[in-house]
């Protein structure tokens, strides 16, 4: 049986992001399918997973290669989804792409969540092969539950007749927060909630000012635990995700798994697996999103939630775990390098 080391250095810094959640999914998916997940370099792992692109991750990949351990680097990030995010991100994007290439080229295989993201990374001229594999979703935990719906609506003072629309993510222009604010402004009879948190120092002034001027029917309750977020999905009348760029969107899978009606901006990442009018609804612009949202909330549009949950079930953690085992079996063997490892410095 395989032994897999999921490199944890720097994961604490992204624990509240999709990258942190993806790493948690890998751990759970592997354990559910009988793979041993080792938390340190010993006993020696058969494969090392790396999820972040910080300097310590680069060093970890180099160490694994010297020890003859194949490296799978998860391509969660692209230059496109780095833009329009934090303060200074547009200026730094070209340098970020160069760093991504340096990191990803240390891998034996790059896994990225969708064919769309794989196509972007293949355009970078990377040395390792790039393969698409969903981040997956815990469909046992995220599932429709009337009791969870009641818990959410009681916590936020919502009656049965109140309509509630939610979104989840960092306070980024790329995530569509400006569009979400305007949709809330144009629909004052509906309650809107944006869940998530970003360090204020990283939030561009334009976003801070728009949030400060948000309409009274829109709230920013902050970061939620996984159980609280599950309640929100189950209790909402729609999940509205206006993001302009994603590599997959774990929150979309979570909403689908909970049987929440999902409305997305129509962007290429969803092509081939999420279809407008079949398992989700999509809008190309603010006007279309507003019209589709009104149709969902009024019941004029057909209920697609069962078809949406089937999409999530196909990406359940056991399915992802089995797919990973097939990937490990196909990895080429790597010989241990003759280069000496640098001795670790002892902490005083």
From TrEMBL:
Q: Does the keyword Metal-binding apply?
A: no
Residues covered by the Glycosyltransferase subfamily 4-like N-terminal domain: 44-140
PANTHER family for this protein: SULFOQUINOVOSYL TRANSFERASE SQD2 (PTHR45947)
Enzyme superclass (EC): transferase
Keyword set for this entry?
A: Glycosyltransferase, Transferase
Alphabetized Pfam families for the sequence: Glyco_transf_4, Glycos_transf_1
Which EC number(s) are documented for this chain?
2.4.-.-
Q: Which residues form the signal peptide?
A: none
Q: Which SUPFAM superfamilies match?
A: UDP-Glycosyltransferase/glycogen phosphorylase (SSF53756)
Q: What is this protein called?
A: Glycosyltransferase, group 1 family protein
Tell me the GO molecular function terms: glycosyltransferase activity
Q: Which InterPro entries match?
A: Glyco_trans_1 (IPR001296), Glyco_trans_4-like_N (IPR028098), Glycosyltransferase_grp1 (IPR050194)
Which residue numbers delimit the Glycosyl transferase family domain?
Answer: 150-297
